[in-house]
Design a protein that fits this description.
Elements (H helix, E strand, L loop, with lengths): L22 E7 L3 E10 L2 E11 L6 H11 L5 E8 L7 E2 L8 E2 H8 L3 E6 H8 L8 E5 L9 E6 L3 E8 L4 E5 L12 H14 L10 H13 L7 H8 L3 H10 L4 H25 L4 E4 L2 H5 L1 H4 L2 H7 L6 H4 L4 E4 L4 H12 L3
Parallel strand pairs: 1-4, 4-7, 9-12, 12-13
Antiparallel strand pairs: 1-2, 2-3, 5-6, 8-13, 9-10, 10-11
Helix pairs in contact: 1-2, 3-13, 5-8, 7-8, 8-11
Length: 349
């Protein structure tokens, strides 16, 4: 990656006089916790001034939580609110399955007395957030000697499976959301067919989110344990009971504590590479693949070995394209909230 950020985002109101020197609130809503930040705009950038975290289920609506943040920090003269939501946004409304309430931009305007409210899909926001990062925020997994500017793919396994793209228009990158994580999972080997059948009994329709997420990681593990008869060690039983499965299984693999840990992570890495392959091909993302979210950061060591890249380039006819795709791990954990703020600040006057 260049020494300076090469993301030139399509932000048509970046230089508008009315967007300079304003205060705005951005929020990254998640099932358990919601992250808030106050930003101001200066020199065509957004800068964090204050931050807070709230337990999502403790509030009857998003507006109640936003008003709490405003009251807690004695805020006034807020020009805009940006809300990153874990689900599709259609006509200023969203009904994320993982949240206890619906969101409506018009209602939030009325209930917070803020005139401009923007709802944005969290992975679209994350794509915008890449424009706020510099070289230090990225770890190169694979560098291309024949880089060709083009579309960019963003893949983010976490509580769900987020997928987004950035369309290259010849001058700028234009982020957009997808719901590709809900496409159906396709097995390739006989063991994977067995895995598919195992999940089908549980879910009916087996999506990639059932495989590449925190619950997906556990699905791989329990298939290996319950169907393939791999032993569950006593220390891991305690971690599962304590609700620490994701960290425990990854650390167990890093430390090579038990066979089932490494089998679980190896399988997850293969599936991650395969879905990354599909997303890149569907978007013709010659501009690069960016892996983001909590799980990829925890899997950094495994992404740097040959298993991920070798599985990523497997294709019937497109290996010549895939081998030239640069791949990066995004280490910045604030791309969603920063991207939501950047979008609200400069997409329109």
């Amino acid at each position: 990656m260049d020494s300076k950020n090469k993301f030139k985002l399509y932000l048509p109101a970046l230089h508008a006089d009315g967007n300079g020197g304003i205060s705005l609130i951005a929020a990254d809503i998640r099932r358990e916790m919601t992250y808030f930040a106050l930003y101001n705009t200066e020199h065509n950038k957004v800068n964090i001034q204050k931050e807070a975290t709230y337990t999502t289920k403790d509030f009857a609506s998003f507006s109640d939580m936003a008003n709490r943040f405003i009251a807690d920090h004695s805020l006034s003269s807020i020009a805009k609110i940006a809300v990153a939501v874990p689900g599709p946004v259609i006509a200023g409304k969203s009904e994320p399955q993982r949240l206890p309430w619906k969101l409506d931009a018009e209602e939030i305007k009325r209930q917070t007395n803020v005139n401009k409210v923007y709802l944005i899909n969290d992975l679209e926001a994350s794509a915008y957030g890449l424009g706020n990062d510099d070289e230090s925020c990225f770890l190169t997994i694979h560098n291309s000697d024949d880089f060709v500017p083009g579309n960019v793919a963003v893949l983010a396994p976490g509580a769900g499976l987020g997928e987004a793209g950035l369309f290259w228009d010849g001058e700028c990158l234009r982020p957009f959301a997808t719901e590709g994580g809900h496409c159906e999972f396709s097995p390739r080997t006989s063991d994977e067919v067995e895995f598919y059948q195992f999940l089908q009994k549980i879910y009916g329709i087996v999506t990639w989110e059932s495989v590449l997420s925190t619950s997906g990681l556990f699905n791989i593990y329990r298939f290996l344990r319950d169907v393939k008869q791999q032993k569950q060690p006593e220390w891991l039983t305690k971690e599962i009971e304590a609700g620490n499965f994701t960290e425990a299984i990854i650390n167990g693999a890093l430390e090579k504590r038990d066979r089932i840990c490494n089998m679980t992570i190896d399988t997850f890495i293969i599936f991650l590479a395969r879905e990354a392959n599909s997303l890149v091909l569907k978007l013709k993302a010659t501009g690069g693949l960016f892996l983001t979210g909590d799980i990829p950061v925890m899997l950094q060591k495994f992404l740097n070995n040959d298993k991920f890249y070798k599985n990523f380039i497997v294709s019937d006819k497109m290996e010549v394209v895939l081998k030239d795709i640069p791949i990066y791990l995004v280490k910045d954990q604030k791309t969603i909230i920063n991207g939501a703020a950047l979008y609200a600040a400069f997409y329109e006057e």
